[in-house]
Amino acid sequence: MTPSTSPMGQPLDRVDGPLKVTGQARYAAEFEIPGLLYGSVVNGTIARGRVIAIDSTAAEAVPGVRLVLTHENRPPIASYDEPYEDEDAAEGSPFRPLYNDRVLYSGQPLALVVAESLEAARHAASLVRIEYEAEPHQTDLALVRDHAHPAPGEVPSRGHFEDAYRGAALQVEHQYGTPIEHHNPMEPHASTVHYQPGGELLIHDKTQGVQNCMQYVEKVFGLQGKVRVCAPFVGGAFGSGLRPQYQLPLAVMAALRLKRSVRVELKRQQMFTFGYRPRTLQRLAIGASPNGQLEALFHGSLGQTSRFEDFTEHEVEWSGALYACDNVKLEYELGSLDVYTPLDMRAPGAAVGVYALEMAMDEVAYAAAIDPLQLRLRNYTDINGNQGKPYSSKELRACYEQGAERFGWSRRPLEPRSLREGRELIGWGMATGVWEAMQMPASAKACLESDGRLVVSSATADIGTGTYTAMTQIAADALGLPVDKVEFRLGDSALPKAPLEGGSATVSSVGSAVSRACASLRQHILDAAQQTPASPFTGASLDDVSFENGELISRRDPQARVSLAQVIQTSGTLEAEARAEPGEERKKWATGTHSAVFAEVRVDEALGTVRVTRVVSAVAAGRVVNPKTAANQITGGVVWGIGMALQEETWTDHRLGRFMNHNLAEYHVPVNADVHDIEVFFVEEEDSVVNDLGSKGVGEIGIVGVAAAIANAIYHATGKRVRDLPITPDKLI
Amino acid sequence: MNPFDYACPSSVDEAVALAGPDSRFIAGGTNILDLMKENVLRPGRLIDITRLPLGEIASTLEGGLRIGALVSNSDLAWHPEVQHRYPLLAQAILSGASAQLRNMATTGGNLLQRTRCWYFYDTGTPCNKREPGSGCGARDGVNRMHAILGASDACVAVHPSDMCVALAALEARVQVKGPHGERSILFEDFHRLPGDQPERDNVLADDELITAVELPAEGFANHSAYLKVRERASYAFALVSVAAALDLDGNTIRRARLALGGVAHKPWRREKAEALLVGRRAEDGAFAQAAEALLEGSQPLTYNAFKPELARRAIIRALTDAAGGTAR
Q: Residue A206 pLDDT more than 50?
């Protein structure tokens, strides 16, 4: 039994909060180094072609400029694909900055100006003139539909969709579209390369995987054993830091060329010159019995990718997993365009795929004239039909029931356009959310220091998600220490191996490793305690003792106790390292997080403006380590869902093949005035399979289903189905 | 951003003497600094006018209000006389930008802010306003935010200000000082349509400085409304905005003012539309006719076909709200 003083499940304030609010937390572009040089990237303006000439005369004449780096004068870099293939690489041939004269997309980095000051670098960068030989390009996914190719990897199918669909009493078929979106974390991407006297590189990078970036730099530049990458703080990433971005190799190139320390920080506009959430064109066809029982389901998606890599994400699989249906056909294709490769963005695949599925389900509910929530319950399943395996736990039914209760769903009239107040139509909509509950191999080290403090570490990241805090709680729990006696270290490639921080798998993966390392340390502590003369623990095993309030206590004789500080005084520092990986038992089960999202909108019918006045999100994510940081994740996801539903869209000028609204004034995300009541809660869910902690992770699930719930609410308010996101005023008038 | 000289004159005459084609005045800097960072503007000299004595709001002999060019947007919007007598102006200002920007932005600067056309801001694309003769990227490009009225082949940009829409409706005057003395420009005449010189937003000469904006005595305090339709509740430029002001005798319209934002290179007014309202009862039929007249000849582009209909609805809504009494 966990003692009542356990920090597990407590809404602990962020342990890194004070550092952040007092400005002591340093981000990648905030490390000061004497003699630091500043790089400014010059981005191309054509979508496809070749660089004929780069005139850097004027740039080089600017006082303080030390180097104009181009494909012609860069240091040697690897020429095969393999060194560039990072842990999150898509299939294909990864982009190599400044490799040669080829222009693969508009916005591609084509030169780096390095100067003694940021001001000189930026000004000089504006003076670099590039001459191109442009070639015809294509950036419009809708126009390459006929040339699409199947995405690598297989998507599951079962039964006989066509026959079942033909025979179904209700047939609902529609197309859905989602636009390109950009991550736009608050902190722009930056790399500060600290050039060491011996030629080693200490790099402060904005990344979700310090070891991923370390290996990338080592391999691309042939610097094995000479690179250390740190990212103790990351100002949001949302997936944009999963792969090394181009500022990293550019900064390294400049540092190697000049044998100086160099920082390259991207401008906000340049945050639109690498990965993004791909545009999708989707089609769903659902056949159902008159009472809404699903009989046939088709979900096809066309996603966009670059010409050099096939970016894939799980867009359609959810449709085969979420509901009971015997005949499922899924299809996933890619259209190659003259663009950069897309990149995982918060709930990659699910955010867009579940949007389409859950709007289609709403349409089925209306075709069958039954309540949308009833439709979900009617098709409920505890089995993942794609895998034919039962879920290790799935408390979605509790999410539906408790979410509906808190929202007041039972008072909802089925008929659209039946609620109105003044000039506003009111609508209530709901949707289901789902995400995987993954676990990746991870390692952690736990060290009981001579001052009695516990220091635990792993090379993971905290991208604002609360990793520092959650790991502190897990470790403190394991050793019965107060949280202020525990320090967790992360964001350093020299620490024990950790996977990329993403996929909602950090608590599951790294948390399990922390738990095991601490378990191992408990044994060391007990061993050490048994070394003292006349130890009351002689012959005791771990089962015979407990760790509480900084003491080792005998279960048989609670008077027999010793403080960890005393143990360590005799033994000296004790440490243990452990690796955790998915267990065999896991293979028998399907695992997932689930949610039910309920939304209320108010639509000014004449002007087409929408306010999302209420959202209730009920989440089943196993054991919640910290309800405060976890709810924070979900709330952020809901806000993003509001943006996805109503605002977010990166516009491309297809004639130029270029993104046009590349700043935060024109790329809209919700502002405070767009965000009203959001209620988030977690239902009880026990899971002994998913990992040692029974905890599933909550980074992605918060956004999934939100846009569909809002779009469905807009239908309920107005009677209008808008299937292409975002639902801007022009689509409603 | 290019290196530049910096001057900080202490009198209006000194400022005007320093001005020229390669110089720019700077006050709040809320727009010009962005433009310089994007290399859209590369002035050789910035003339900082924040020390000039242009920060007063005072009554005029005609019973109106004289607003110094350096009065901040916040101070103007919250000034008791403005709140009380010109609520249309206060509403328009407060629906623009953010509190932080309004604290910095000045009255004169608001008139001079540049278009937010995406092509104007991106030096990797053609733009006749930024680089005359390079072509208009927006006319056949992504032109969702662009003009439906008064545009030219050379330019389809819109003026982004909210405040100016209200000032146009209120028939303010712009006080200007140049090397040859002062002149007063009717607000209507201050901003220009792009024609074949889209690089010129207004009629100011390079060496002229806005010293004040004057409001006439009539503020339509009882029956005015500013309506801004945008894609999020704040921090967004208008898809369409409407300044509507009525002088009513019972339910009969004695005088009317109507100006649109987000549809043209300048705040959009038409005498005909306002005249149509005079003598009519304040109700939908008359409002719809005024809307038709104001929007007549609209020429939507690829991505803004929704604007004429949205504008029509917004006009009717704003006039309805104005007739119902100013929201306080």
A: yes
Residues in A closer than 8 angstroms to B310, CB to CB, are: 607-608, 729-730, 733
Query: Under an 8 A CB cutoff, do B140 and A655 touch?
Result: yes
The closest of B155, B176, B146, B187 to B269, measured between CA atoms, is B187
What pLDDT, in 10s, does the model give residues B215-225?
999 999 999 99
Q: Which residues of B touch A106 (CB under 8 A)?
A: 124
Determine, for residues B233 and A671 on separate chains, whether the beta-carbon distance falls below 8 Å.
Answer: yes
Last residue in a domain, options B33, B50, B67: B50
**Which of 608-637 (A) contact B at CB < 8 A?**
608-609, 611
Predicted ipTM beyond 0.90: yes
Q: Does the annotation count A700 as an active-site position?
A: yes
Is A31-136+186-237+241-272 CATH 3.90.1170.50? yes
Number of structural domains, chain B?
2
CA dihedral defined by B14, B18, B23, B29, rounded to 10 degrees?
-20
Question: Looking at this protein, which amino acid is placed at residue A591?
Answer: T
Alpha-carbon span A665 to B112, nearest angstrom: 19
CATH of the domain spanning A440-581, picked from 3.30.365.10, 3.40.605.10, 3.30.470.30, 3.20.20.80? 3.30.365.10
CB pair distance less than 8 Å for A674 and B233: yes
- Round to whole Å and give the CA distance between B59 and A512: 72
When computed from its CA atoms, the radius of gyration of chain B, rounded to whole angstroms, is 19
Is there a common fold for A280-438+587-731 and A440-581?
Answer: yes
For residue B299, the domain's CATH number is 3.30.390.50
All residues of chain B having their beta carbon less than 8 Å from the beta carbon of residue A111 are none
What are the boundaries of each domain within chain A?
Answer: 31-136+186-237+241-272, 280-438+587-731, 440-581
Minimum distance, in Å, between the CA of residue B80 and any CA atom of chain A: 26
pLDDT at position A4: 52
- Kindly indicate the confidence band of residue A529, based on its pLDDT and cuts at 50, 70 and 90: very high
B314, part of any domain? yes
Average pLDDT taken over every residue of chain A: 97
Q: What's the pLDDT at B278?
A: 98
The model's pLDDT over A12-31, given as tens digits with 9 standing for 90+, comes to 999 999 999 999 999 999 99
Could you please report the per-residue DSSP string of A694-733?
A: -B---TTTTTTTHHHHHHHHHHHHHS----BSS--GGGT-
Whether residue A615 contacts residue A677, with contact meaning beta carbons closer than 8 Å, is answered with yes
Residue A1 confidence (pLDDT) above 60: no
CA separation, residue A145 to residues A315, A338, A653, B95 (Å): 17, 15, 19, 42
pLDDT in tens, A92-147: 999 999 999 999 999 999 999 999 999 999 999 999 999 999 999 999 999 999 99
Q: Per the CB < 8 Å rule, is A647 touching B232?
A: yes
The CATH number of A280-438+587-731, from 3.40.50.1480, 3.40.50.150, 3.30.365.10, 3.40.50.720, is 3.30.365.10
pLDDT, tens digit (0-9, with 9 covering 90-100), for A414-446: 999 999 999 999 999 999 999 999 999 999 999
Tell me what pLDDT residue A533 has. Answer: 82
Q: A660 and B141: CB-CB below 8 Å? A: yes
Residue type, position B136, single letter: C
CA distance A449 to A462: 23
Residue B79 lies in a domain: no
On whether residue B282 sits in a domain, the answer given is: yes
Give a yes or no: residue B250 inside a domain: yes
Q: Is the peptide bond before A290 cis (omega within 30 degrees of 0)?
A: no
pTM for the full model? 0.98
Tell me the residue type at B29: G
Residues of A in contact with B141 (CB under 8 A): 653, 655-656, 660
Radius of gyration of chain A (CA): 27
Domain span holding position B31: 5-50
